[in-house]
């Protein structure tokens, strides 16, 4: 492991233990058995779903793996531009998380990990620690609301520290998934801010065999406002996604 990678991972091991040790005795946790899922997706273009930005006009591929037991989990995401390895969709996110049941309908999930820029190598400049806080509210058996706060560049590149909020309504009915999303990058830490919105419609959970499912969907992204068009240009996207998911 390189010195850069050690600097990325070690602070998060310490921060993870501190965060969850403090909340262990104050929030109800329901024990659940171990389960995992592996999802692979092929896109006609790419959207950076954590920040709400157009990533590349080239076909792209990503894969994510989640394993969870007793509300503790590990999450790995790897995205890649299939034509150009110099676009910022070439990255990885590695994190651990824990689910906290605040009530029958509200769940808080903190993620602590590392965001790795991979345009030229395993951990390029800009790779750093990341903290993600997701709050999910179940409004109806088929409707939920989610708020995500992402804090990036916390340790190694503090001059590029950022804070992105994502607001998402999700509707699920049998095989249909409809997701409406808004992203707000405020200028609390950096010099720029922007608003984007997105809509995704997918026909999901088509069972191919035991524990294997396919889905197909269409997504759109609209940049509504940007204070720095050089850093965050007005670029919109419309893409088709094919996905396969293996679960256990």
Low-confidence stretches: 3-11, 22-27
Element order: H for helix, E for strand = HEEEEEEEEEEEEEEE
The amount of helix comes to under 10%
Determine the strand fraction and express it as a percent band.
Answer: over 45%
The CATH topology label is Porin
- As a whole number of angstroms, the C-alpha radius of gyration is 18 Å
SSE class: mainly beta
Tally the helices: what do you get?
A: 1
Our count of domains comes out at 1
- Gross morphology: globular
Distance between the termini: 31 Å
Report the biggest beta sheet as strand number plus sense, adding barrel if it closes.
12 strands, antiparallel, barrel
Mean pLDDT: 89
- Side by side, the strands of the main sheet go 1-4-5-6-8-9-10-11-12-13-14-15
Number of beta strands: 15
CATH superfamily: monomeric porin ompg
What CATH architecture do you see?
Beta Barrel
What's the level 1 CATH class? Mainly Beta
């Amino acid at each position: 492991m390189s010195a850069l990678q050690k600097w990325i991972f070690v602070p998060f091991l310490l921060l993870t233990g501190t965060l969850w040790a403090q909340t262990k005795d104050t929030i109800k946790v329901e024990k659940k058995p171990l389960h995992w899922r592996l999802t692979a997706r092929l896109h006609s273009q790419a959207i950076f779903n954590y920040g709400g930005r157009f990533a590349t006009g080239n076909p792209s591929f990503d894969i994510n793996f989640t394993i969870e037991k007793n509300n503790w989990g590990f999450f790995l995401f790897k995205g890649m531009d299939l034509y150009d390895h110099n676009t910022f969709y070439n990255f990885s996110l590695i994190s651990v998380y824990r689910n906290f049941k605040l009530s029958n309908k509200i769940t808080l999930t903190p993620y602590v990990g590392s965001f790795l820029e991979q345009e030229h190598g395993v951990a390029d400049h800009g790779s750093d620690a990341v903290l993600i806080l997701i709050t999910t509210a179940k409004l109806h058996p088929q409707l939920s609301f989610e708020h995500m706060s992402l804090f990036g560049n916390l340790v190694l590149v503090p001059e590029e520290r950022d804070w992105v909020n994502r607001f998402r309504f999700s509707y699920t009915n049998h095989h249909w998934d409809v997701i409406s999303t808004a992203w707000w990058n405020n200028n609390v830490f950096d010099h720029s801010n922007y608003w984007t919105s997105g809509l995704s419609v997918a026909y999901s959970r088509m069972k191919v065999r035991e524990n294997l499912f396919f889905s197909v969907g269409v997504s759109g992204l609209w940049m509504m406002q940007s204070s720095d068009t050089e850093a965050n240009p007005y670029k919109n996207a419309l893409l088709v996604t094919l996905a396969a998911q293996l679960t256990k």
